[in-house]
């Protein structure tokens, strides 16, 4: 097991409300083929889209699996989306579903949502504006024997269960796909990767199929080649990042499945091994 400072990482409460879907005055979204479309998108409660489902083929745009929450206070929402980590325990603290337990599956930038999985019996009792408390735990996690690897956005308990092996001074991680840097789009250039996500561009279907991207599922681990997420998101030859698929494919140019980063290094000391055993739902 990779040694960490897990016992020093602080667990702290953050909270948000289930956020209603929102549209501008015109409901149309323009696809990368120039086609205006009216589709479901971010927010609310997705009853039939869950962690482990395909991130492709949905009649929707930027679909967020499960429940999407937000805090109406901007600064408090910054804390919610930054301190929440994938795998954190989430508890419904108001409404008919009070007491229901789920877990965080990702943080979606731009719309600034935290995404949470609940089982069906809990989903059916939830309503927009229900309050959900998260035991935020993970930011500040370090790998004690790998000072050149930065960890972010991952619950330490989940991290310990992930399919990661140590070999010859490197971490070998089971992943569903290896993504070339030229396919990373919306969200690149952001000043931090400790919140939100960035998208795999999917307008070039030949490239998508070549790299197996069309097979990705919500919750899959992926390796981002030559992508440095240490102090923002950008290209760096030899850099490696590991992330989790958190939202669906998209119709807009420059967009696609969203990836929340959990590991990154400026050095080639993380490698990916393609495996079917690479989805977070199997380890929570």
TrEMBL record:
Gene3D superfamilies reported in the protein's UniProt record: 2.40.10.170, tm1086 (SG structure) domain, tm1086 domain
InterPro entries xrefs: DUF4438_C, DUF4438_N, TM_1086_sf, TM_1086_SG_dom
Domain DUF4438 positions: 28-160, 161-283
Pfam family, one: DUF4438_C
Name of the protein: DUF4438 domain-containing protein
Organism: Clostridium senegalense
Lineage of producing organism: Bacteria, Bacillati, Bacillota, Clostridia, Eubacteriales
